[in-house]
Amino acid sequence: MSFTAEQIATVLNGTIEGDSSVVVNNFSRIEEGKPGTLTFLANPKYTHYIYSTNASIVLVNNDFVAEQPVRATLIRCFNAYAALAILLDMVEKTKPQKTGIEPMSYIAPDVKYGEDIYVGAFAYIAENVKIGDNTKIYPQVYIGDNVTIGDNTIIYPGVKIYQGCTVGNNCIIHAGVVIGSDGFGFAPEDGVYKKIPQMGIVIIEDDVEIGANTTIDRAVMDATIIHRGVKLDNLIQIAHNVEIGEDTVMAAQVGVSGSTKVGKHCVFGGQVGLGGHITIGDNASIGAQSGIISNIEAGSKILGSPAIPVRNFFKSSVVFPKLPDMYRQLAQLQKDIEELKSNLNK
Amino acid sequence: MSFTAEQIATVLNGTIEGDSSVVVNNFSRIEEGKPGTLTFLANPKYTHYIYSTNASIVLVNNDFVAEQPVRATLIRCFNAYAALAILLDMVEKTKPQKTGIEPMSYIAPDVKYGEDIYVGAFAYIAENVKIGDNTKIYPQVYIGDNVTIGDNTIIYPGVKIYQGCTVGNNCIIHAGVVIGSDGFGFAPEDGVYKKIPQMGIVIIEDDVEIGANTTIDRAVMDATIIHRGVKLDNLIQIAHNVEIGEDTVMAAQVGVSGSTKVGKHCVFGGQVGLGGHITIGDNASIGAQSGIISNIEAGSKILGSPAIPVRNFFKSSVVFPKLPDMYRQLAQLQKDIEELKSNLNK
Amino acid sequence: MSFTAEQIATVLNGTIEGDSSVVVNNFSRIEEGKPGTLTFLANPKYTHYIYSTNASIVLVNNDFVAEQPVRATLIRCFNAYAALAILLDMVEKTKPQKTGIEPMSYIAPDVKYGEDIYVGAFAYIAENVKIGDNTKIYPQVYIGDNVTIGDNTIIYPGVKIYQGCTVGNNCIIHAGVVIGSDGFGFAPEDGVYKKIPQMGIVIIEDDVEIGANTTIDRAVMDATIIHRGVKLDNLIQIAHNVEIGEDTVMAAQVGVSGSTKVGKHCVFGGQVGLGGHITIGDNASIGAQSGIISNIEAGSKILGSPAIPVRNFFKSSVVFPKLPDMYRQLAQLQKDIEELKSNLNK
Q1: pLDDT for B125-144, tens place per residue?
Q2: Rounded Cα gap, residues B116 and B124, in angstroms
Q3: Subunit contact C176:B213, Cβ cutoff 8 A
Q4: Which residues of B are catalytic?
Q5: Which stretches within chain C are classed as H helix?
Q6: pTM
Q7: Neighbour-count burial for B25-56, b at 16+ CB within 10 Å, e otherwise
Q8: What three-state secondary structure class fits C273?
Q9: How far C95 CA lies from chain A's nearest CA (Å)?
Q10: pLDDT digits (tens, 9 = 90+) for A252-262
Q11: Please, which pLDDT band fits residue A346 given cuts at 50, 70 and 90?
């Protein structure tokens, strides 16, 4: 498919600067843009590429000011990244969709499912499962007894959902994700650990996306809850009885310990670790690799292990490499003062 | 099923305080307890909920002292958490158990297996595998050639066990676990890395539980060994030739490098990293996110990266945010002293 | 199979010291060496074991100098570890190889594949896939539409490769790896996150090994690229549009954020985290658990979070536990100086 700048600007409600008849048939990144492709500029780090890119069209924010001549046709939009998303979405939707139930899948006789679902070969759907309309279950997925899955949800190959858990509408669960494995609960008894059976479930609400090989444990009782709109990256660990608030995003390899409650609209960098039984307020922003062991107030911006306000962390980190010098200087000062004192006392 | 406080106290060998005829038919968490449910109090952080919970029965430790009136019936036990485990266990055991060999599984002709096993659809059991009695192999599990698995073990969906490894009795291996993948061994040669074939195996002893998507590499020769009673949480990495001592527990996302030996009864927080070729003594306690690069004595309690005694770590962490001030103060003191010196020398 | 020291020395082009007729039929580690086995000494930490090992043959580097009598026959080689690799490789190659296409696998009608491939049961090979000669696809692997895989590559059980990705020749992909899952891209819009469709692919070049449960996300456009000879350990996260240079090795649980470029011949310790949109120069060495948020020059050796030169990190880490003392001393010095000043002003 080919589109002119004019057609694209119409879709995006954008303003054209340059040749409105130029045609593109693919996307590219700005630093590697080829003629006939459309690219975008959202991250200011990449601004210098706009003067050299060979892409034919560049989506830019309305407030972009060119400091040199730009060869490409510009389309100015309210938000270049969101505009790109709209275009990518349109292309994505033209792709053929999988439907139907492939042979060599296993679906228990009492499973209830809606219209236009896809079930791939070697998928296993156990007893009393309910699946909504338009949902796709890829090959080799395991859905345990009594699981409920909503409409328009995509479960990629090899996902494992243990018995009793629920997944909402419009969710995307990537390959290798495990939902509902036992929480890590043991009672020490005479030097060995006795397992605490984990009787609860996991609830994944609507519009949640979960990255590859992430694991979410079932609650000891009640439920581990991932609320509407949460986005989890790959290889994240969510322990039992955790609750993640609406529209919170977590980058890869974050770990959240048991019974911790994370608020809404929080942003987590990668490899963050949260201790158990704590509360993270809404809109908190937690930098990569932070370690958190106590409650965090709403709106905090923190970093480090243990985490402190971001600005403090960076200021102290700048001093950290000077510690050996400071140590020596301090010793020297002590000596100097002793000397001064004894001189004065003479 | 419903039980009276009296029936439960009898099972647990506990003492009743309050109405011994009250009936419960489910479990709840103390902060969300509903009438007709049983809950427990083990973590002191939750003590205040006991005065407001609507649960009908609360298991408490013998030494619990109420500071306000408690509506619920109390059952005093030696260890409330362990008592809960006993009750949960009883309920768990009433659940119907999977047995039998489902069609669309693959079992090599020479596989030997005991009584009452379960093998789910799309499970693959390769040549010369031995499986004990009452063991459950869920759908989509892969068991390589010459693997041995004991009695009463549960292998959840999608677990992959490479050839030659052994798993003991009463183990629980959660979905997505990989046992016996190649250790990370390469010899640099003319600027490229030549693979060192990994000829050893993994030995999982009895009573081990392994969390979802954890990976345990086979040894270069001999064996990587997880000893009796070890509990590993999700997304843990155990490298080749590692040995983990009996009854050691590790929280999620811990990584243990090659040839390291971990002692018995150790406790690891999440996201800890251990270097290679080191020894961790028995009963060591290693705080979350610690980094360990040298041997650790038995009984140590350490934290940080590099790890130091826990108390030291916290004390130094309190000073860390003051580093910029200290840096300025130190410079000021140097100036002051220079000034004093020159004044004295006048 | 049994071999004499003489036969082995001939293969390795090594020099014998001791009984050249001694026979071995297995490998062992030096600390647990049994008679009739061959072991090796590469890591100096293990040197003391050479005087007590019961192994019959020890491979040592040419420059090894015995400080006590050694019972075993020594074979001196240019590089003992690489020599071991050659022997292990020879044994590995004598093992029977899986070939053929097992029943209960799914291969789309238009798949093109070469000679002597193996496809295990419950493997799913989707439309328009191309697979080279001698490649092994183990059970329960998923290969999406339009994927291309080269010759002599091993895809272990349960690997998931999303549509459109390519894997080169002589690669080894361990169980549970996910290649081509969606990159983590969302545009915030009115407080919720709108998914940016990820239209690119993943390219895995030749001679790459990828450890168990590692995840590599597809690019938003263009490709995430793992170049020739890269070795990734287990549970690593590679985000969208990342590029990893030739012959770079990464230990387990490393996380690389989006659009970051890693150079050639770099060495990463475990649990390192790289920020997004940065460049790591060739031959950089990054210590375990480091956090990197800006570009790193070629050849750097860094450690810490944020990372600084390794020597500085260790020097400062030694001072870190002394911070509380320094803080007190500093306060004391301030007092002393005030006192001195006021004494002088009297």
Answers
A1: 999 999 999 999 999 999 99
A2: 18
A3: yes
A4: 240
A5: 5-12, 80-94, 310-319, 323-345
A6: 0.94
A7: eebbbbeebeebbbbbbbeeebeebbeebebb
A8: strand
A9: 29
A10: 999 999 999 99
A11: low
Whether the CB-CB separation of B183 and B258 falls below 8 Å is answered with: yes
As a whole number of angstroms, the distance between CA C26 and CA B200 comes to: 11
Mean pLDDT confidence for B292-316 = 97
Q: How far is B67 from chain A (nearest CA, A)?
A: 23
Tell me the pLDDT tens digit for each residue of A156-165. Answer: 999 999 999 9
Q: How distant is the alpha carbon of residue C270 from its chain centre?
A: 9
Whether the domain at C3-94 and the domain at C100-312 fall into the same CATH topology = no
Q: Which chains form contacts with chain A, at 3 or more CB pairs under 8 Å?
A: B, C
Which residues in chain B have Cβ-Cβ distances shorter than 8 Å to A243? none
**C196 lies within 8 A of chain A by CB:** yes
Across the range A322-326, mean pLDDT stands at 97
In angstroms, the CA C154 to CA C148 distance is 13
Q: CA B330 to CA B327: how far, in whole Å?
A: 5
Question: How much is the average pLDDT of C6-25?
Answer: 95
The model's confidence at residue C346, banded by pLDDT at 50, 70 and 90, is: low
d(CA C301, CA C310): 6
Rounded distance between C-alpha atoms, residue B298 and residue A248, angstroms: 41
C324: nearest CA partner in chain B: B316
B residues 150-169 near A, CB within 8 Å?
A: 156-158
CA distance B239 to B215: 8
* Residue B311 to residues A137, A216, B116, B282, B294, Cα–Cα distance (Å): 51, 32, 52, 20, 19
CB A193 within 8 A of CB A179: no
B235 Cβ under 8 Å from any chain C Cβ: yes
Q: How far is it, in rounded angstroms, from Cα C105 to Cα A99?
A: 20
> A108 and chain B: CB distance < 8 Å anywhere?
no
How far is CA A149 from each of CA A167, C193, C226, rounded to the nearest angstrom?
Answer: 5, 21, 35
Q: What are the distances in angstroms from CA C67 to CA C30, C64, C340?
A: 17, 10, 61
A42 token code pair = 């959202």
Question: At what angle are helices B310-319 and C323-345 packed, to 10 degrees?
Answer: 50
Domain ranges of chain C: 3-94, 100-312
Separation between Cα atoms, residue C103 and residue A230, nearest integer Å: 41
Model confidence band, residue A179 (pLDDT cutoffs 50, 70, 90): very high
CATH for the stretch B100-312? 2.160.10.10
Judge contact between C129 and C147, C-beta under 8 A.
yes
Distance of CA C48 to the CA centre of its chain: 28
Select from C137, C133, C138 the least CA-distant residue to C150: C133
**B310 touching chain A per CB within 8 A:** no
Reply yes or no on whether A240 is catalytic.
yes
B84: which chain A residues are within 8 Å (Cβ-Cβ)? 187, 196
Task: Please tell us whether the domain made up of C3-94 is placed in CATH 3.80.30.20.
Answer: no
Q: Does B306 sit behind a cis peptide bond, omega within 30 degrees of 0 on the bond before it?
A: yes
Whole-number Å distance between alpha carbons of B326 and B331? 9
A174 touching C (Cβ < 8 Å): yes
Q: Does residue C241 belong to the interface with chain A, where contact is any CB pair within 8 Å?
A: yes
Which of the residues A234, A266, A282, A326 would you substitute to probe the C interface, choosing the one with the greatest number of C C-beta atoms within 10 Å?
A: A234
Cβ neighbours of residue C298 closer than 8 Å, sequence gap 6 or more: C263, C281, C282, C283, C284
Q: Which residues of chain C does A85 touch, with a Cβ-Cβ cutoff of 8 Å?
A: 187, 194-197
Give the mean pLDDT of A176-196.
Answer: 93
Chain B nearest-CA residue for C102: B106
